[in-house]
Amino acid sequence: MPFVLTYPLQWALSRRPQWHRYLHTLNRYWSKLFICMWGMPVEIVRKNPLPARQPCVYVANHSSYIDIPLLFKTIPGWLNIMGKSSLAKVPAWGPIFGRAYITVDRDSAISRGRAMVQARRTLEAGRSVVIFPEGAISKTPGQQLEPFKDGAFQLAIAAGVPVVPITMPLNHRFMPDVDGLRVRYSPLAIILHEPILTTGLTAADAPALKQQVYTTIASALRPEAGGIPEPSTWRQPQSASPAAPGAQPELAANRH
To answer: What is the pTM assigned to this prediction?
Structure first.
């Protein structure tokens, strides 16, 4: 409902780049209202203050459809976010996302290069960037991260900006990545870890930085909450099948 009510204004603000700052502010407010309306408690942990007046590369695990709204709700400032190109094809929301944020086709080297250029220009303009280094929603959400891509860490080093690891350990319990819509009552949590400075690092340091961020994000996962919640068991009980003709009564009873 919050998205639908604000959709006409979002569509209008997405038409011109100079209005995208206001569009992001609107996205932040409808994301907050959206999460509030579900009635889920949200635990927000900030391990250390974020660098003041400095853009950052926020690097988060990816486990749910609720990830982007929760990031919009939690991270201050005017953000740019990098998402897969298929998001731009989602009805209604897709064209707005495609105009206002960065889309990337992970299977295309040209698309990946273009996305990194956009992200670098974003940082140079003083605007932070959010990247999901797994490249897709994890196959084992809440339990194990997918291998990280290199782009986010090469970008942060090249731009000389801090990397802020983010762990969202419970989102998959609330709204998992499954066919259709599956929602379960589950508290949400988001942990903004201590920023990692990249001053003085070179491209050769990117693998070590990637491993440090991977370890940091993984350390705050909650394996006991891992896995996808089961489908609903609210269904009509199946009637017992009739006994085969000629079956003895006691055998028929055993079949039931």
So the answer is: 0.84
